[in-house]
Design goal:
The protein has 141 residues and is α+β, with helices and mostly antiparallel strands. It has helices at 2-10, 20-27, 44-55, 57-62, 87-93, 122-130, 133-140; strands at 32-38, 65-71, 75-78, 81-82, 102-106, 112-116. It contains seven helices and six strands. It has a six-stranded mixed beta sheet with strand order 4-3-2-1-5-6, with helices on both faces. The protein starts with a helix and ends with a helix.
């Protein structure tokens, strides 16, 4: 998965996917995207969210999830890998100030399914996703 994302971010022939729209389009109908915004790398809520996510990597893979993190609107990572796209582009698109903590879940259809200002627990995240019609269809296959 990490290798695929690295190649995706580099694009074919070593060129960068220079826009956030291009990146997000790559995930549409393929992945659920958890967006995590934090004012600084050592923010308590970001640390808590990261701890939650580390506990459930298998469940995240099973649900086709990708995590994008924007720290202070400067640094953007995709599943932990640095991106050439500035974090400010993600902040602007989802209207999150660089000094805010926010978690947003974007479904495979590209629409926002959840937005909150505190970390989401794995149980809460997976319960929400598992109730979605597309996920229920995936589980029945």
């Amino acid at each position: 998965m990490q290798l695929f994302l690295g190649l995706l971010l580099m694009g074919w022939g070593g060129t960068s996917l220079a826009t956030l729209d291009g990146l997000m389009q790559q995930f549409t109908w393929q992945n659920r995207v958890l967006l995590v915004f934090a004012p600084q790398a050592d923010h308590a809520a970001l640390r808590q969210q990261n701890e939650y996510l580390e506990l459930v990597t298998g469940g995240m893979l099973e649900r086709d999830m990708v995590v994008l993190r924007s720290v202070a609107g400067k640094h953007l990572t995709v599943d932990g890998a640095p991106s050439t796209i500035p974090g400010s582009a993600l902040n602007r698109r989802y209207v999150v100030a660089p000094d805010q903590f926010r978690v947003i879940l974007v479904g495979k259809d590209g629409t926002v399914k959840l937005e909150q200002s505190e970390p989401i627990t794995p149980d809460g995240l997976f319960a929400l996703i598992d109730r979605m019609p597309m996920r229920r269809h995936e589980m029945s296959r």
